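Can't attach files on this board, so I'm pasting raw text. These are the components:
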Amino acid sequence: MGVRLSWRRRGALLLGMMGASALSCFGSAFSINELGVRASGMGTAFTAVADDGSALFYNPAGIAFQPGKHLQMDSLVVVGLFRFTPSATPVGQVVPANGYSQSIKPHFIPVASMYATAEINKKFTFGFGMFTPFGLSANSTNFHDDDPNLTKFVGRFAGTRARLEEFWFQPTLAYKITDNMSVAVGPAFVHTHLFIEQSFLNPLDDGLTFGRQAANTIFPGVPKEQAAQVIARLLPEGRSRIAGTANTVGFSAGFLYKSPKYKTNIGINYRSAVTNHLSGKASFAFGKGYTLEPYVGSDFLFKAFPNQDIKGTFTTPATYAIGISNTSIANMRISFDFRMQDYKRFSSVPLNFGINEVNTKGVALPVEQRLRFDFQNSYQYAFGVERTISPTLTIRAGYLRDQSPVPDKSTGPLFPDANRNSYMFGGTAKRGTTEYSFFYEAMNFVNRNTNVAENNKVFTNGLYDNFAHLAGLGLRFDMPQLPSLKKFKR
Amino acid sequence: MQFQSTKRSRFLRACLIAVVAAGAAQAQAKLDTTTFVVLGEGLAAGMANYGLNSTFQTRNFPAVMATQMNTAFPQPLIQPPGIGDVIGYPQREVITPTLPQGTVRVFPEQPNPNDNAPPVFVLNLSVPGHKLVDAINLRPVAPIVQKDMKQTVVNMILGFPQLFFQRTVPLWSQTEYAKAMFPTMALVELGYYEALEAAVAGDPTKIPDPVAWGQSYAQVVQSLRQLQAQVIVTTIPNPIETAYFANPRVAASIVATAPFILTAGYQLTQNDYITRKGMEVIATQFWNRTIGPLPAGSILRANVAADITNRVNALNAQIVNAAKANGAVVYDLNAFLHKIYVTGVTVGTRSINADYFGGFYSLDAVYPGPTGHALIANDILAFLNQTYKTSFSLVDAKTVAAGDPVFAYQKPGNGRYSGQQLRVTDGPADLLLEAEAAAAQEAAAEAAAESAADAPVDTSAEANLDEPAVDAAADAAPNPTEYTVTDSGTAAE
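---
Top answer:
Structure tokens for the assembled complex are below.
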């Protein structure tokens, strides 16, 4: 006999866990795979399993085979250990002995998901999930703005901070076609928040643009390019911050087939791409006391880069997953997933400035600035096993190979990504109608050494040596007394 | 020429060379030439002949270096005839602009002449007559033309066009200006004017106290290093080894007489020096067939010269210490010019040396002409290549020499004026004749001794005047580093 929590105590526990969910993470580029504790314990190979609330994420058709009403709360904690050692730096650059830490503060990033399912009748099951399939939190800001430039993070012109959260609120309806086959579809309300911070007026890049324009005025008679290089160093360093939100829709669909004869499940899952039309703000700040300031005026750069509202577009990829699982061997479930995410959609992030060089004199901002990333499609191979030790205890293990979609040229402070090999284990203990699950994942990033000529000017070439610890706790319990659902059933 | 060196000066020089060599070997930093600034005085500014003007500025050694390094190097070019006082001459009245000057500063030409304007900033911040204390403290002051030439030159170089702006902009001293340019590479050529001033005045005490001077120098280096610039400091050339000072043998070849005429006529020892000023007066006297008293500043006695050399070496030791303490590298300009002084150098078919009219120094006798600057630039570039593993190509000194009037200077050479032609106005009338007879006897004795040894020899006193200007005494002077300078101007240590 397990300890039975009262509904009130369960609710309080759930609310407490939700309160801790800051919803940010490192993912494959920015995907998050570990949105179910049970699933994560078996390498996220869950498309053909889908037998708990996280099926709403891994394969919504799975909820059709979940009788009764359940509420599930999964929480994930990520500790990312990210380190970058540049292969080249500006002359005189001070680089920490072990490279730059790109770990975020605080080190522990909580990610939470909540799933609820309710069997409506023998054919239909309703579910509602809140989860974050895409998220990112990167921080390479190891400095204060007024620190000497050569002590600052060397790759700051490629980015210093990034934060992305894409929340999916997904009601889902699953239909059991036969006793062994189901389909589901779930439209989703998607809320996205994006924040990007980076330094600009790089003396080797955009600062040169200004330098070229001013070359003949400041250094007449000097070759333009040489003059521009000198002038670019007389500018202050700028910091740009862009933040925006978007509300849009997406949807998920799933299919699950169970073969009792072969004790085999086959699952298919699709989650749509989402094009987020961002609305937000762009703000710019500059160092003071730079050499050219008395000549151009202290408001020159602020007029050239005015704070303003911006529009932008940010696309997250679609996910295609197919999985197979089998329970015919030694009281074990073995499962395998293959997933593809069409990250090719994420080629660029266009940002549109309302106040720009075309409509306002003295402004240096273009009508549209495109942050170009040119991601590749991402492929994931997940393998997991689950063994039932007793009616109240289950243990799991898994492996996930995650092929990074980030090309070398886009590997940097915003996406310090690499191919990953993740090793997981976990377990579930059942007490009464409540399941307590946990998992741990050691995510080892394959060391990545980049050497892209066009990145020389932002100094993001070098060695990316990353590792992440992930751990999660989950609660799943029945909701027999949910009044509204009772009424609905009648 | 004869180099009067004491044991102490030799020791200091040896220590200096050892430290410089060690520093160069240790330096493995990268060199970024994007913003190359030069702090210095007349040498780095390109002062030559009788002022600072664009004719020579465009060919000064920093400009040659910048060209070879393919980096921007806007200079405060001054329209001829130039500005600035020439050391050893009385200070001039400031008349700026003077004919044929217009804007005084050269404005680079634009497609539309109305758009012509000077550069807002310059990177060669060298100011003729600048001492270290000036480099730190002396700022431009309005109006641009002052009664004081030194301040006017500062205004023209460091305050132009800033002094004309309606907007309030900072007026920087040389060091402040250099820092404001955020240099990636800085070359510091300071201290030479302190040494020159003392040597020309014949007053070693004018050379500043080395410890205090060294502390100020270190502050300059440190402030540049704090910007992460690679800093190359140059040692101070020994002014005694410039064309301004000539021993009687060399001076005789310049004023067209025999050495004994000078030693006897002007009461000199072989180790004393006749200054440029002295040679000018002597030449005038000879023109009038007389030998008379010389004005102050014409003779530098050997002991004073040695004292100055020691004090310059002490300043150079401070430079080395400052560089070492702050991660700068030391280019031993003093050693290079010592080599020019001792052995000269062959450019094309001509051997030039540090004598007056020797082809290296201009008419002011302390600053080189374009060929000299090219040779210095090549030696520094070779030093940079060695120190920073760069591969800057060197300039063809022969090509530079082809268009260099300084390179074409020739000494009169033969003894046009004998003892019989000259009359001593302030001494025994037969002084020169006795000296001439003694010299003839001495020459005859030498000839006899050599004849006995079956060695062919020219016994005439005049023939000695045709000897190369590089003398045996100078050859014996300390020669810490060996340079090979080829016809193409390539130089290697």
